[in-house]
Amino acid sequence: MNSPARLKPSRTVDEITGSRRLRRMRKADWSRRLVQENHLTVNDLIWPIFLVDGEDRREEVAAMPGVFRLSVDLAVKEAERAAKLGIPALATFPNVDLALRDRTGSEILNPDNLINRATRAIKAAVPEIGIITDAALDPFTSHGHDGILDGGIIVNDETVDQVAAAAVLQAAAGSDIIAPSDMMDGRIGAIRDALDAAGFQDVAIMSYATKFSSAFYGPYREAIGTQGLLKGDKKTYYIDHANSDEAVRETEQDLAEGADMIMVKPGLPYLDIVRRLKDEFQMPTFAYQVSGEYAMIEAASANGWLDGEKAMLESLLAFKRAGCDGILTYFAPRVAEMLKG
Ligand SMILES: NCC(=O)CCC(=O)O
Ligand SMILES: [Mg+2]
């Protein structure tokens, strides 16, 4: 019989590899640590947190076990914890009272809206932590879209005006980085102009340069309460997930308009985009490990189908390997605890 095991190879492994045996450096923990190329540290973490009105309120997001909507007082406590853990920055996302949502998302222009109140409270209590705010309309609109809806169309330019005005209010509340997630054309330049005109030259912009139309945002929509509201999809403004050149064009434009940092979203299924953008632009590059990615790891882990902790760490290190300078991740406090201990 011609069993493969019995075939005599014509060359030895040393002949085949030229004695370059790559397993040599993998033989022990110490040698693996010595040649490890990428590392995850607490400095790589941005923690997205969800906000809700009220006091002493802490509601778990059903599709995101371990993730909570927090009233501002509790968000301040979590910010204190994050700062103690060494997490550099938080990104806040509000679940706005339904009564305050309307067709144009006008509540985003309230200087005392949930985001701005949270920013002020956190900055007052924990000035050393960075605050990143999203100047996007979706938590504020009655239809869950990221723009002003007019005759069935998400109108670009009116949305940009409103987002730029909201960015100034967020900066005035103490936000350090404005991170607009809506993908309207021209928003980065408009926000930069508006911030500069208002004297906020030092407030940075992290562009959601490449936000793809994706099924992985599902649990987030539950978290901010837009899942029942959203009609249709966001394909007229988010990037088609079939495209990669388009992501380069979007990023080029946002950088030309004044973005200080760029972000890719979702994360893990889009590492090719991360690598491409890092190679092309050499800018501070981030990825958002979104709600659906978190939920997948958590669900599989809860079922005993994979080791959740290991999968979490592996996924985060993969972002570093792909070229990320940092990751927005709901795992941030858990990872920070682990890295500390
Ligand atoms: N503007 C922020 C998001 O859309 C987050 C999406 C997610 O975590 O699924
Ligand atoms: Mg763009």
UniProtKB/TrEMBL annotation:
Its EC number is 4.2.1.24. The keyword Lyase applies. SUPFAM superfamilies: Aldolase (SSF51569). GO terms for molecular function: porphobilinogen synthase activity. The lineage of its organism: Bacteria, Pseudomonadati, Pseudomonadota, Alphaproteobacteria, Hyphomicrobiales. Gene3D superfamilies: Aldolase class I. This is Delta-aminolevulinic acid dehydratase. CDD domains: ALAD_PBGS_aspartate_rich.
